[in-house]
Amino acid sequence: MALDQTIVGKASEPQTFTYGWKELALYALGIGAKKDELDYLYEGRGPKPCASFAVVPMFKPMFDQLIKTGGNLSMVVHGGQKVVVKKPFPSAGTVSTTATIRGIYDMRKFAVVLVDTETRDAGNEVLAETTASIIFRGEGGFGGQPPPKEEAVKIPKEVAPDFSIAETTSPEQALLYRLSGDFNPLHADPKFAEDVGFPQGPILHGLCTYGYMIRHLTKAMCGGDASRIKAFEGGFKRPVWPGDTLVTEGFTVAPGKIALRVSVKERDEVVLGGAWAELF
Mind telling me the catalytic residues? Predict the structure, then answer.
C-alpha cells in the first residue's frame, strides 16, 4: 500500500509539551550524562537543557504525522536528524510544536519521509526547528522522486580530530532513553526486534546516539555549555546495540563549523555520519 501523498505540506495542530527539571534530567541520563555533568542533572543548578533536548517535544507531533501516511510503522527506522536552535530552551515550561511532512520520496526498496517541526515557547517565540528523515522499509517503488540531495560536510583526510571521546553505553541504555518519549518496541522487545529484522536484539535509538554525539561535542568544544551550539545534523548509517562503545570524533572545518562522526569501537564502523554542528 503506497504512502498517502495527500498529507504532504499540511501542518499539524500545535501539540503542547510541559516539562520541568525531571524531564531534563531524565533526557540527559538517557543520552549518558554522568555526575561530572551535574548542570544537566541537578535541579539545584537549573538544570540546564542539553542542546539535543529539542528532539523530545518534536517527537510525538512528528510521529503522529507519520501515522497519517498509512505506512507500516513496525518497519520504520530513523534515517537522519537536523536541529536548528533559535533560542535556548528554558529550564521548565510549556512549549508547542507543529509538524509538517515536507515530502515523501522513493528510494526503490524503501520510502523516505521528511518531517519538519517548529517548537515555540509560551511567548510564541521559536525555540527550535527540526527535520527528521524517516525510512519506511518496503514502501518504495511507487514511482516517486528521490529525496533532495544536500552537500555533505566531509571529514578532512589524514587530519587528526580536534577531539575524540569514547564512552560505553549501558546494556539498559535504550530502556532508559525510551522514557523520554520514543516507545517503539524495537528498542525494548527482543521478539519484536527479531520479527522486524534485528535478531541480535533491540537496537539503541538513533536519537540516543545523536544525543551522545552532541553531549560529547558540548564537553569537548563548548566547555560544557550547551547554549553555544547553534545547529547540528547527522545521518544514521548502521544500528547500535545497547552496551556498544560509542566513539565521537570532531574536526574543525571552518570557524564555528565542526564535522562529526560516531563509530562503534567494537566493530570499527561508522554508525552516525555526514554529521556536523555550528557553534555560536
Answer: 182, 187, 203, 206
